[in-house]
Amino acid sequence: MNQWTDEKLREALKAAFPPGAPEAPVRDLWPQMLRRMEATGPLVSWLDWTVVAVSGMLLLLLPGAAPILFYFL
């Protein structure tokens, strides 16, 4: 059986495990995210408008369906 010295064991462990990623990001990403959010604004897709229109029509045509509609929304 081989006798491992502390130095040999330390070298073997360093070779087996690559160095980890830095704990903190290199730069702060929050200001970039704020600029991106302000540039685009809130996005509302056509599917959102369709759901709103169908829900409104359903409430106008069938008021008794309101509890079912509110349950699923």
Briefly summarize what is shown:
With 73 residues, this protein is mostly helical. 62% of the residues lie in helices and 0% in strands.
Radius of gyration equals 30 Å
Distance between the termini: 68 Å
Count of DSSP strands: 0
Average of pLDDT: 82
Which regions are unreliable across 5 or more consecutive residues at pLDDT < 50? none
Class computed from helices, strands and strand pairing: mainly alpha
Which term fits the overall shape? Answer: elongated
Helix content: 55-70%
Describe this entry's structure for a reader.
This protein has 73 residues and is mainly alpha-helical. The chain has a domain at 43-73. 62% of the residues lie in helices and 0% in strands. The protein has helices at 6-16, 30-40, 46-61, 66-72. The radius of gyration is 30 Å and the shape is elongated. It starts with 5 loop residues before the first helix and ends with a helix.
